[in-house]
Amino acid sequence: MDTQNTPVHFRLWHRDFWLLALANMVLSMLVYMQIPLLPHQLMDEKLSPLMTGCVMGVFSLGIFVLGGFGSYWVQKYRRNRVCLRAILILLLSLVGLLLIPDLEKIRFAEVRNWLNIERITVFYIILRLLMGATFALAQIVLCSTLVVDICESFQRTEANHSSNWFGRFGLSLGPVVGLFSYKYGGTDGVLVASVSLGVLALVLISMVKLPFKAPDDDVKVFTTDRFILFRGWPLFINLSMLTFVIGLVLSVEWNLQFFVMMMLGFFLALCSERFAFANADLKSEVNTGLISIAIALVLQHIGDAASIPYIVPVFVGFGAGAIGSRFLLFFIKLSNHCQRGTSVSTYILSWEFGLSMGVGVGYALFYGKQQMMLMVALALLAVVLLVYNCFVHGWYIKKKNR
Prior knowledge:
Oligomer: single chain
Structural class: mainly alpha
Largest sheet: none
Number of helices: 15
Strand content: under 5%
Number of strands: 0
Distance between the termini: 16 Å
Shape: globular
């Protein structure tokens, strides 16, 4: 029986690893906190559900804009500075998003008349596109370059696994911080929380000292190195479909309780790796995660018990955590020598593309149609299950290199 044979506990490595891992979590929180908040702001600005979905979904296109330049930049400049500048631009674009409603307070009538709903929508789309581009660049440099460079070669798989778990927890922690700050501080509270998280991410990465590394000869300005692993396209599509389903689920107006319980699901998935799936068949973790999400969708569709709002997010978090962790290791083991960074970047792109596209489509096509959305999500999940078991898993076993 083929087992994963991958350690899943966090080792107490040197200080720099923990600084980068925490920075990854804070960076994820900064972006994910907008999932439950930004759509309400857009609709308050009189954007239709369709345009709201477009603004949310355009993030999924932005993540591919700068990745091809990442390898050139991290060799030409100091690696941590590339990440810091990307986070700074990300933070500025996010602040711009939050301040757009204040444009209506402009006193000059000519300017106010010029700022019609169409132009405001364009501003939102441009800023979301910029957010996607800078967030993807920052995460790619952070997770596929900085984390790898500070660890010994025998530690790198576990380092990637552990640091990405920190980022995964950001999917639940970010909305918790966002909803909490909005509840007690309104829009100004969200702005303060966003700036605080952005500054914290900058400080954490600045504390890691990385020596300048001489660039390779004949460095290309645009390359797929450290950007995307084309030979991993079956894994990319399969994971994107799964995170698309999760994005659909998150497009429903969930409350603070949902994301707190989702965090519990992540924690259970992390524990299950250590105690339940440590020596299990490779298929078991992915299939268990898919079944867990399917149960959550079914319960939400047909259940009316008082416990349903507590159970559903736990199952969603467990499924997303288990599948995301397993697919990361699939990408790493699929890569050839010196392609670790590229494989990790491809995993990040796949996860973020499906998630943000799912949120966008959820608002654009299924706003106010929760039952229809759940049926579509269940159908897509069945496709993911069939594709994984009938094609992707067997293909991966034949193609893996580690």
